[in-house]
Design a protein that fits this description.
The complex is a heterodimer of chains A (148) and B (83). Chain A is built from five helices and six strands. Chain A is α+β, with helices and mostly antiparallel strands and 148 residues long. In chain A, helix 1 packs across helix 4. The longest helix of chain A has 22 residues. The chains are: A alpha+beta (148), B mainly alpha (83). At the A-B interface, strand 1, helix 1 and helix 2 of A face helix 2 of B.
């Protein structure tokens, strides 16, 4: 039986963060700030001198906010750590969603999710793009099914 | 409580306006509060009032105005949510 994806849409989120602001937060709040916002993996990926660390963290914060713009939470927002930037050995990054972020993605029918990070001249930015499909059309009975 | 909230906003909100001039219902995000600055405001409020914002309260509306912050802090302190 053939099926047709219906109502497929695309969402894009973008966010920009001042690296110096992140450096100031690390300086002022230290472990409380880091543990509240970033996962262990994200922190392990951001090493080096303070500016380099802050640049990496700022790009990851931007990714989390960009992801929120595509997840479009109504009510409580997902915790920052439930949106994780996963860095692969070749340097490419993906997003891993857990908890409420993952549930929002499932509810939105998000099928594919991509992220790109950058930082330059004291600013860090991220773009998140997703494709959403609300369901599949089954021609025999016209019904739709979620999440296939 | 409002004076302390305004102090936190003045020191951590990075608002491009005078915090003292903001009405308690003024939208802080419209006034220039960024997402990242709101994290600092949250952490500073936790320090100042010895509470911890639980995940269900981490919504934009919790920090959208001085009045909303006061309401959230009142709820937390009444519930005895320690940091």
């Amino acid at each position: 039986m053939s099926t047709t994806v219906i109502d497929e849409t695309c969402r894009v989120g973008v966010d920009l963060v001042v690296v110096e602001d992140v450096a100031a937060s690390v300086e002022r709040f230290g472990e409380r700030y880091l543990a509240r916002v970033y996962t262990d993996h994200e922190r392990a990926c951001c090493t080096g001198d303070p500016t380099t660390v802050a640049s990496g963290l700022a790009a990851r914060f931007a990714a989390k906010e960009a992801a929120l713009k595509v997840l479009r939470p109504v009510g409580p927002r997902p915790g920052w750590r439930s949106i994780e930037v996963v860095r692969h050995p070749n340097g490419a990054c993906d997003l891993a969603l857990t908890g409420r972020a993952a549930r929002l993605a499932a509810e939105a029918g998000i099928r594919q999710l991509a992220v790109s990070l950058t930082h330059e001249a004291g600013m860090a930015a991220a773009v998140v793009m997703v494709t959403c499909g609300r369901g599949l059309l089954h021609p025999t009975d016209g019904s739709t099914k979620q999440g296939e | 409580m409002d004076d302390e909230i305004r102090r936190v906003l003045r020191e951590h909100g990075k608002l491009p306006c005078q915090v003292e001039t903001l009405d308690e219902d003024a939208d802080l995000f419209e006034a220039g509060l960024t997402s990242h600055a709101s994290v600092n405001v949250m952490l500073a409020l936790e320090e100042a009032f010895d509470v911890e914002f639980p995940e269900p309260m981490l919504r934009k509306s919790t920090f959208e105005s001085i009045g909303a912050i006061r309401h959230a802090l009142t709820t937390l302190t009444a519930a005895g949510v320690p940091s």
